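User: For a reading group we're discussing how well predicted structures match intuition. Take DUF2817 domain-containing protein. Before you show the prediction, I'll give you the sequence so everyone sees exactly what went in.
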Amino acid sequence: MSASSCSLLVAVVAALAALCFHTLSGEPPTCPHDRSACYFSDGYAAARARFRAAVFSSNGTLHTLTLPTGDDLTIDVAVLASGASSIDNPPTLIHMSGTHGVEAYAGSAVQLALLEKYRDPSSRRGVRVVLVHAVNPFGFQCGRRFNEDNVDINRNLLDAAEFASLRGEKERVGLYEEHEWLFNLRSAWTPVLDDLRFVAHALYGIAVLGSINVKRSVVAGQYHRPDGLYYGGDELSASHALLLPKLREVAAPASAAIMLDVHTGLGPTGVDTLIPSLETIDTVQATTNAAAVHTIFGRAQDGKLPSPELGTEFLIDAPTPGEATDSLILTLTLPSPSS
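Assistant: Thanks. Here is the predicted 3D structure of DUF2817 domain-containing protein, as structure tokens, for the group to look at:
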């Protein structure tokens, strides 16, 4: 067994042990005893209501984008003006939550904290703040990573030619088909029995097939099996089709913009982990971006990159086709609506 396989095997065992410990260790921190817990909501409807109320109390502008599902599922976009009326193209922070629906619990909580922090326009330091709440509202409401069409919308920001190319990649298709029995269900999930079966499959996959191959087959996404895990779709999701023109409308023109797409599950617990894509920006640019983010969040000191104790780490991740931002932190310049 390779060193990487051993490491992943240890991680799986540790995760199971942590789950058991969490189950037996009592209730998690609650509000008001833990201030950070006060920003977390019980579900999609409650989170959306709190987000909208916080936007209005901050004198922000709210834009509501309704998904064509007929289920009152919306992406809510809040715009907080920079506070510098003389600037026509202010630097802009775009903060997105819930690209992977169930992960919106954390992203929504961060946005409520930001709305409280930036209630006073002077606190925005000349930066326009755009908050996108619940990019995948279906996933948030139903506790799923994927959207109403089983699409992982973090692997969906592609054009028609890119969809066709990825769908026809023999290596990608072959790798997925070789391992899909490990993670795709053949029938409805049976508690306990299927939990144990999944653990057995995971251990077998790590020990025999190799952790790298299993990870690549899943995480890289696939575009040929609509009912399988990590399906990237064959066209833009409804969320992207609604959101892209709205961002061009409300976040442009901008002299520069930083987009943060909040996810959970990577990096140490309770630590902000910035994941730049090296294909998009080099290490120097990533460092510059981190300093800019911390300036906006009030953590930078004298323009220097914050020290590790301020709670930020870098995690360099392999690029995945169709990611909503190509990275969780990305410098970009948005075109004006007329261009």
